[in-house]
Amino acid sequence: MRVFEESQKFTQTWLMIVLIIGLIAPILTITNQWSEKTDKNLISNLDLLLPLVIFILVVSFILIIKLKTRIDKDGIKYQFYPIQLKYKTITWAEIEKAYVRKYNPISEYGGWGFKGGFFFVKRGIAYNISGNIGIQLELKSGKKLLIGTQLKEKAEQAINYNNKEND
User: Fold this and answer.
1) What is the pTM of this model?
2) CA-only gyration radius of the chain, Å
3) For residue range 84-130, what is the model confidence (pLDDT) as tens digits?
4) Distance between CA 97 and CA 104 in Å, rounded?
5) Average pLDDT value over all residues in the chain
6) Do the Cβ atoms of 134 and 103 come closer than 8 Å?
7) Dihedral over Cα of 84, 9, 11, 101: its sign
8) Which CA distances in Å does 59 have to 55, 69, 72, 89?
9) What stretches of 82-157 adopt beta strand conformation (E)?
């Protein structure tokens, strides 16, 4: 396999349940408080609706996040949309090692999403949506990057094929 492409979104059942429960609670609170108000002026209504609007925006943001990965002759490309509007490319010349591995998202990176930072400096940065399989990149610069994947075998095939082509 010469080219590997994958696109992932947050579609886990547990996440959808949490988001729905998280949406129901403020709606019930707002409707209850609003129905009890005797002075229904515009400012009071905005005070009640603002948290709901913010929550809906956050949920919408989570639902549009997409992790796209492409492995080809040029290197490994990834995009964590909408945080990254364009693919980021890591060329084969920049890569010391590339392999697929199992990892623990919570203990190694602090969960799913765009992860890294102060507590995980040694491990590098991770972009993941779900699961515990990732494409581990160790760069010649010493940096590390993990890109989550749900297609372990296909990712391995693409890495092995393109590594051989670029040796």
Assistant:
1) 0.76
2) 21
3) 899 999 999 999 999 999 998 888 887 777 777 666 657 788 999 88
4) 20
5) 82
6) yes
7) negative
8) 6, 23, 33, 29
9) 88-91, 95-102, 113-115, 125-128, 133-139, 144-148
